[in-house]
Amino acid sequence: MNPSDEDRRQADLRNKIIGLSETSHRKNYYPQLKEQIKELKQAMRALKESEEKYRTYVTISPYPIFVIDLDGKFLDVNPEACRVAGYSSEDILKKRISDFILPSRVDNYEVTFHKLQTEGKLSGEFPFINKTQDLFYLELHAVQIPGNKFLAICMDITERKKAEDEMLRAKIIAENANRTKNEFLANMSHELRTPLNSVIGFSDMLLGGAGGELSEKQLRYLTNISNSGKHLLSIINEILDISRIESGEMTINKQKILLGEVYEEIHSILKQLADNKSIDFQMPLESEETYVYADKVKLKQIFYNLVTNAIKFTEKGGSVLIDSTIDDKFVHISVIDNGIGIDSEGMKRLFNPFVQLDSSESRKYEGTGLGLALSKELVNLHGGDIWAESEPGKGSTFTFTIPVCQ
User: Fold this and answer.
1) Continuous H helices in 247-356
2) Helix, strand, or coil here: 121?
3) Residues 281/270, Cβ–Cβ less than 8 Å
4) How far is CA 186 from the centre of its chain?
5) Cystine design at 399: which of 138, 272, 334, 377 (Cβ 3.0–4.6 Å)?
6) Are 379 and 264 in a shared domain?
7) Sign of the four-CA dihedral 117, 120, 126, 127
8) pLDDT of 53
9) Between 226 and 169, where is the model more confident?
């Protein structure tokens, strides 16, 4: 029952009793007086039970609850509020809520409390200081109640705030570490590429006859030097590209590109690699007149990574096929092989950088584990998507999408 309704009812009963008392010497109103007194006692007992019930609810509540006046002075407080503040109820009732505000946030408090006074309600997360001057946080919901008072029901979110702060610190540390790593990789890549370019350049000059005619042995040695240097340079370039992407420094120059031209270039570059393993390497014909909106160099890099992977993991005499379909917005390009395939565990880690599905020292297939990760990032930069389908012994299909040039 609403206490204000009960107060009015008691007042009505008292008035009736007073009226009965004034006229009781003239009339015999004793039975009515007795009934009214009984009713008054019942009402008072119900009110007391109601007060005790709600007092119990507040007392055992796991949430801090308090009542303050218009000046912020505490009028009532429950045990949980005492616990988070570190004071007894007697001590808190001598204080104002401003006594728990950080000195650096006094101005904010005054603005916030003024908002509560004018609007009659307030919700938010606020920091306070306890008896030992330690910081604690409350999610607070306050509302004005009769008697120019404010009732606040809160939730102690100190542990959650600590966890959020720890996560933020860990994020900052990780970002700093990643930035340091990227700077190191970029610097090291530059330091390594400079001498490598000299090695590759001079070996190619000698292979071209700049130093005179070469013997068969010299030709073989120089070819190995050139090929090894170019392989190492490609690895360094992949590491540098991953570093640029992770640091947000990778840029792409998208333009209208004839997809058939890219197919022809990739086929001419990798045909010999496929022929060395007697692999049937086929390109699509139906997409020769299809235009895409892409960075040509980056698109060729995606193709190169996917096709060389397919050739590498396909046994001699196998096949590698590039297929494509077109919808309103994208070209769906698939690189299909009938190679060794990938198990379910390998599929989960497929596009992670520096991950080799066979990480043993005696692994059969070489590689850095960067090609697929780099391809995924390059596809994402184009606004496309990439995925794979595979089963052990049944080959693999890698599909990616590139925007059609409208």
Assistant:
1) 259-275, 296-312, 344-348
2) strand
3) yes
4) 27
5) 334
6) yes
7) positive
8) 64
9) 169
**What is the extent of the structural domain holding 227?**
162-246
- For the segment 82-131, what is each residue's pLDDT rounded down to a tens digit? 999 999 999 999 999 999 998 888 888 989 999 999 999 999 999 999 99
Closest CA to 264 of 281, 283, 247, 280: 283
* Separation of alpha carbons 275 and 266, rounded Å: 14
Number of separate domains in the chain? 4
- Which residues are registered as beta bridge partners of 160? none
Q: Report which of 270, 280, 337, 347 is spatially closest to residue 304, judged by C-alpha positions.
A: 270
Amino acid at residue number 206: L
Q: If 0-12 CB within 10 Å is exposed, 13-18 middle and 19+ buried, where does residue 263 land?
A: buried
> Same structural domain for residues 237 and 284?
no
The residue assigned the tokens 């947000």 is: 248
76 and 181: one domain?
no
Please, which residues bridge with residue 153 across strands? Answer: 65, 141
Q: Which residue, of 43, 60, 77, is where some domain finishes?
A: 60
Q: Kindly compute the dihedral angle of the four CA atoms of residues 33, 36, 40, 42, in this order, to the nearest 10 degrees.
A: 120
Co-location of 264 and 383 in the same domain: yes
